[in-house]
Amino acid sequence: MGYDLAIGDRAYSSWSLRGWLLFTKTGLPVSVRMGRMYGPEFQRLLEDFAPAGLVPALRLPSGRVIAETLAIAETLAERHPEAGIWPADPEARAVARWLAAEMHAGFGALRGHCAMNLRVAYADCAPPEGVLKDLARIESLWALARRDFGAGGPWLFGRWSAADAFFAPVAARIAGHALPVGPEAAAYVRTQITDPAFVAWRRAGLAEGPDQPAYARDWPTRPWPEG
Ligand SMILES: N[C@@H](CCC(=O)N[C@@H](CS)C(=O)NCC(=O)O)C(=O)O
After folding, report:
1. In a domain, 222, yes or no
2. Residue 13 CA: which ligand 1 atom is closest?
């Protein structure tokens, strides 16, 4: 018996994307079960993963179900130290945990105004002040990670780590809502949305059935930035 991961719509469920990336980017095997959110199939999925209540939810090989993406990341890191979930260097690891935790708990304005929707890209979402403030904070955290730990590759800490899983949907929101960021942040956004794992996830999300009406916004659109 291996890992079972419950996820929601790939096009809309940002937390599911984070959970799935933790497996896919580290090569840890997992069996994925998707339920389209807000429908009866999703209710059945949640019942099967009770008492989790939200996605992603993870059934461990023992049968125990856990939830909360940060807890899933820490559990996988502890069980698979060789998988490289967090950076190897202790100082980089401490900062990576900080950034992931700040993301997990924060950026409410950005998350509220710019829901993740991988089926559409907006040319202008009229970002309010709170969104711009969140963006500035995100850019400063990304710049710090890249400056102090990013020399070995294009990810926040050089090599891919769980911090990048936590910021993948943030990058998708920036790309999908034409949010204004500087060239370094824009390069990191490109790294995220052109990564083969993200591209495969998005492609699968485009094919998962009709659009979810709750995510429709009345903003001008443009083509998805990276094809
Ligand atoms: N703090 C949770 C958030 C999980 C979450 O909000 N999941 C959303 C999908 S992105 C969900 O299950 N929504 C279904 C619902 O609210 O019924 C985590 O870190 O995993």
Report:
1. no
2. 10
- Mutation pick for ligand 1 pocket among 54, 114, 173 (CB with most ligand atoms within 8 Å): 54
Summarised one tens digit per residue, pLDDT across range 188-218 is 999 999 999 999 999 999 999 999 999 999 9
Regarding whether 75 and 144 lie in a shared domain, the answer is no
State residue 146's pLDDT score: 98
pLDDT of 1 reads: 72
Quote the domain boundaries for residue 47: 4-83
Exposure string over 115-137, b if 16+ CB within 10 A, otherwise e: bbbbbbbbeebebeeebeebbee
**What does the pLDDT look like over 147-179, one tens digit per residue?**
999 999 999 999 999 999 999 999 999 999 999
- Ligand 1 atom closest to the Cα of residue 116 is 10
Is residue 219 domain-resident? no
User: Which one, of 34, 80, 36, 91, lies nearest residue 57 by Cα?
Assistant: 34
Pair 154, 94 in one domain: yes
- In the chain, which stretches have pLDDT less than 50? none
Residues 97 and 121 grouped into a single domain: yes
